[in-house]
Specification:
This protein has 122 residues and is α+β, with helices and mostly antiparallel strands. Helix content is 37%, strand content 30%. It has 2 domains: 1-50; 60-121, OB fold (Dihydrolipoamide Acetyltransferase, E2P), CATH 2.40.50. The chain is built from 2 helices and 4 strands. It starts with 5 loop residues before the first helix and ends with a strand.
Length: 122
Amino acid sequence: MTAPHPVAAVGRARTRSATYKPVARVFTLVAAALAVATLVGLILLWPGQVESQVAQGIAVDSEKAKVDRVEEGFCAGFETQQCQLVKARIESGPDQGKRIELQLGAGGLDPNVDPGDQVRGG
């Protein structure tokens, strides 16, 4: 079997290359147009100076409190879940001296507190 003539092989390569050049140009132009449109959209739709109100919604005033007593029991509304009922006395702010109760889950997500510990409550 004889090898193809070198001139014939070059001719085929030129034909394929000539076919792919217009397609490559079209894809390049489309990609460039999309990039420019994206940039223009970012500039026009950028939010600018925006005040975040997330922190305002979760901000609460809290005061120092000292834990007086911790009782283990069942959580209110969940008869099968263990909780800690923490009784503490507020030591700062306008409610100083007031006694508060905190219900903490005993599942490991809430801190473990003992009598005499300092906590923050509101």
